[in-house]
Design brief:
The protein is an alpha+beta fold and 147 residues long. Helices cover 35% and strands 20% of the residues. It has a 4-stranded antiparallel β-sheet. Helix 1 packs across helix 2 and helix 2 crosses helix 3. The longest helix has 13 residues. It is elongated and about 55 Å long. The two termini are 17 Å apart. The relative contact order is 0.15. This is Lrp/AsnC family transcriptional regulator. Keywords: DNA-binding, Transcription, Transcription regulation.
């Protein structure tokens, strides 16, 4: 699907606030609400818009730790890990990467004891390294048109 300037403007609005009404988006980009609806539907059908999420505060929900954990999988353990990682509630995001490690995970944990227990589960799959997240520098940046 070719994204024209109007589609990019609609995507910008949705990335800033996915709860904006089609009427409000239409006012901002200069087209009617039905036209916005149709463009959004086409972008969803094309797989450009993958979904809509609610962003929550982990700290206010009782979580005390966010960490980045890398895993260098043992021989023969990568494929089993790739299936197992999907079952961990702690894992917010998981990426298969190039380099010395095979996996990077962003995890959310209740406390240090939870971190210790979680790492104990991971070490059967490979060598781990853990970094505790102190704060976000950037978050949920908008995807912009290629230049």
């Amino acid at each position: 699907m070719n994204l024209d300037n109007l589609n990019w403007k609609i995507l910008k609005c949705l990335q800033e606030n996915a709860r904006l009404s089609n009427a409000e988006i239409g006012r901002r980009v200069g087209i009617s609400s039905p036209a916005v609806s149709e463009r959004i539907k086409r972008m969803e059908d094309a797989g450009i818009i993958l979904g809509y999420k609610t962003v929550v505060s982990p700290l206010d929900m009782g979580y005390q730790l966010k960490a980045i954990i890398t895993l260098h999988a043992f021989i023969g353990k990568l494929k089993p890990f790739l299936e197992k990682v999907k079952t961990y509630d702690e894992v917010l995001n998981c990426y298969r990467i190039t380099g010395n490690e095979n996996i990077v995970m962003e995890v959310l944990l209740k406390n240090q004891k939870h971190l210790e227990t979680f790492i104990d589960e991971l070490i059967i799959y490979g060598e781990t390294k853990t970094q505790i997240v102190l704060s976000h520098v950037t978050r949920y940046k908008e995807v912009k048109p290629l230049k």
